[in-house]
Amino acid sequence: MNTLETKVDLVLDCKNEIGESCFWDPRDNQLWWTDIEGKKIWCIDENKNSKKFNLPDRACFILPRKEPGFIIGFPNHISIANQNLTSYTKLHDIEIDIPQTRINDAKVDPFGGIVFGTFDENSDRSKRKPLGSVYRLAPNGLLTELFSKVTVSNGITFSPSGEIMYFADSPTDTIRQFQIQQNFDYFKELNLFVNKGSAPGFPDGGTVDSEGNYWSARVRGGCVVCYNSKGKLISKINTPTQAPTCVTLGGSNLKKLFITSLGAPLHLEKNTNDFHAGNLFSLEVQISGIKQTLSKL
Fold first, then answer.
1. How far is residue 88 CA from its own chain's centroid?
2. Residue 5 pLDDT more than 70?
3. How far apart (Å, rounded) are the C-alpha atoms in residues 220 and 216?
4. Which of these CATH numbers, 2.120.10.30, 1.20.1560.10, 3.40.50.2020, 3.40.1160.10, describes 2-284?
5. How far is Cα of residue 42 from the mean position of the Cα atoms in its chain?
6. Coil, helix or strand for 62?
7. SS (H, E, C) 122-153
8. For the segment 260-297, what is each residue's pLDDT rounded down to a tens digit?
9. Model confidence pTM above 0.85
C-alpha cells in the first residue's frame, strides 16, 4: 500500500454541515452534492462557479434523472424534483413506522433504478442500532427491500460491468459486495470485500473507477483510500479534513476525485481543530471514473 503525498486542493470553502451524495452530472458538466443538515443542494462547474439551493427539508441524497430534474431522498420519502429544485413530487414513503431512522446513501443502479439505505440517526453513535435496511426502487416504481439489519448505510456503488454492488455499514468498518443480474431478479452476497481495520476511520461514501478500483472516504480517518477489485488496499491519500464523507470522479476527463466532508461541530473531539471541515476538495488521479448513470425514474 502506498501513502501518496498527492496534493489535495480546496475547491470550495462551503462549510457544509454534512456534505454528502456527490456526483458529476454529464447533463450539465457540474458537480452536484447535498448539505444534509444545512437543507441545501450545491453545484459547481469546472470554473468553480458555484450555486446553492434551499430545500424544504434535509436532502439525504440527490441523483440525476434521464428526464430533466433529480431524484431526492428526504429523511422518510423519495421525491422527483424539477431541475431548479423548486417543485417536488413524492414517489414513495420510506420507514415512516420507524421514527429513529432516515434515508442516507444512494446510487443510480445499472438498470436505471436507485439503490439506497437507511440508518439509525441517534446522535449518540454508541447507541445506534441496526434498524435500517437497503432498498431498491425500480424504474417502474416498485420498492424492494434487498437486506436489513443495517446501522449506517454507506458506500453504495457499482462495478464497471454493473454486475457487482458494493455496500458499507460504517460502524462495522467493513465493505460488502453483492452479485446482481437481470434487473435485480438475481441478487446474492459474495465474500466480504474489505474487512475491518484496513485503514483509519470508517468507510463512508464510495465510488468505482473505470478499472474497477473502489475509492472510499474514511470519515474520522482523515483520508481517502483505494482498493483494487480484489479488496487489496493499494493507496491512501491524506485529506485536509479529518472527516471526508463522499467521493466521486468527475471533470472533463473524469480524472478528478471530488471529496465532500463533515462540518466541525458534528465530528470534532475535544481540544482539536479542523479548519477545513465541511469544505469541498479534489485531487487529480491517473484512472478515469465511469460516466454517471441516469435514473429512469
1. 22
2. no
3. 12
4. 2.120.10.30
5. 15
6. strand
7. CCCHHHCCCCEEEEEECCCCCEEEEEEEECEE
8. 999 976 555 544 678 899 999 999 999 999 999 999 99
9. yes
